[in-house]
Write the C-alpha cells for this entry.
Amino acid sequence: MSRRRRATKRQIDPDPVYNSHVIAKFINKLMFDGKKSTARKIVYDAIDAFAKRVKAEDPVMAFEQALENAKPALEVKSRRIGGATYQVPVEFAPDRRTSMAMKWIITHARDKAGRSTQEALSMELADCYQNQGTTIKKKDDTHRMAEANKAFAHYKW
C-alpha cells in the first residue's frame, strides 16, 4: 500500500441503455477477461427478467432498491491488542457498502448451479428486492457478527 497519497477515484461513464452509473459499475464487477459486451448483455437481460418478475415499471429504480436492500451497514475487522485479536465492529464506507452488495449478489448468482447467469442474476435480484435469499442472509450474518462483538467497539481506530 502506497504511503504517498490516497488514490483518486476515477469516474466511470454511465451505461448506454439506462444511463446509470450504478448499473455501469455492476457491469464492470460482473465482467470477466475484459468482455464488457458479454457482461452488458447478461446484466440487461437479467434486469429485464427481474423487472418482469417483480412487476416494476421502472427497472432501474427496482434494481437500485434491490441493491439498497443488500447493502450492509456494519462489519467486523480484526484488531490485535496485547497479544489478543478482537473482532471490532466498524461501519462501512458508502462506496464499500455498494461494492460489497454488488459482489455478494454476483457471487451468490454464480453459485446457483444449473442456471444461466442471466436467470440466476434476475432471481438473486428479485430475492434482494423482496428482502430474502442468500445475499440478504449474508448481510444479516454480517450484522449479527457485529452485534455480537459490540463489547469491543471501543477498540475502533
